[in-house]
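Structure, all two chains, one model.
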Amino acid sequence: MTTTAGSAERLPPALRTEALEQLLTERGLIDPKAMNGLITTYETNIGPLNGAKVVARAWTDPEYRRRLLDDGTAAIKELGFGGFQGEHIVVVGNTATTHHVVVCTLCSCYPWPVLGLPPSWYKDPAYRARVVKEPRAVLSEMGLELADDVRITVHDSTSEVRWLVLPEQPPGTEHLTEEELVPLVTRDAMVGVAKVAAP
Amino acid sequence: MDGVADMGGAPGWGSVHPPRQDEPVFSEPWEGRAFALAILSNRASGGNLDSFRHALERLDRAHYIDDGYYGRWLNAGELRLLDSAVLAAGAVDARARNLRGEHVEEPPVPEPAKPDYAPTAEGTLRCLDTAPAFVVGERVRARDMSPAGHTRLPRYVRGRVGVVDVIQPAGVLPDSNAHFLGENPQYVYSVRFDSHDLWGADAEPFELTVDMFESYLETPS
């Protein structure tokens, strides 16, 4: 029996992944070691902990905060983060009356060097479709209620500009050290769909 | 290109899902392998970031939505390999069937026809020795265009007037680079729109910025 690509039955992506990996490996077109390296990098080395370090530094060092909001790419590079999907990072700061939230309506662009690969809600069609049209309703569904006087700005990341939200430091944490603040900072707060809670 | 990938403002997607704090990077092992394969197979096919995004943009609804995020990456990677004739049509399907015990004849390996493409520098940022055409604070209109090929101009801002908020560094123009027709680097502008200008008088009050390449913009009459 000969089967063509247009056959009616769609095979599951897990099986097609295995098939493609085998075909390319046999021909020497990919190196399984390089594949494993990429997977490990994004599973363990590059993730929201990087961004949390940036935020905690900004909360404890006013000069760093100024540099971060002025030239995010350079300030983030000071902490050793940059590269693919983070060539040009712009940081916007949330305040009591200003709230920033980030989306990519065309795909799921995301600042990988500081946040890792995007979470499922960020890639979800409902988020991509709706947050540019009714952000207050979307944030409410995600568990973030904003006061009526808070001005919302949505950033649609359609080019290679990558946006990072500098969340507000929770009240009562002013005495904490940078190291103590890092674990409080969540990925969701750095995209703008949550606030950082005090411990 | 107007496809399912351009989702801004599209109706019918239902409720958003609240974040899960314990969500793994890859929910199943194949997702991590599909992620890495997509990146590496795009390279193997002689592609670039923009041609990969254009492959995503060309997927039909089933290949884009039903297979999930990493499924769509896998499908776009395979499409790039087909474009460059690194793989024959049906090769992945046939191998997958053989993997599950069927006996399927696999198509012969074709003669690859990779694009003749070499970036002028690393990454996507480029330096221009010309000045930006628009200044901060200037009113600009997103062109009302619907190109057949790749574009990063979302449908929901086409024809709408906003104000230049930030002039970002120049970058490779995806519309030409995706088709290997040159980098054509241009300034990128973060343009600020009022929600009511996008969605009408009854819209929630908020502002929105969209990053747009210079050729996407014109002076409103």
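Chain B touches chain A through 92 residues (CB under 8 Å).
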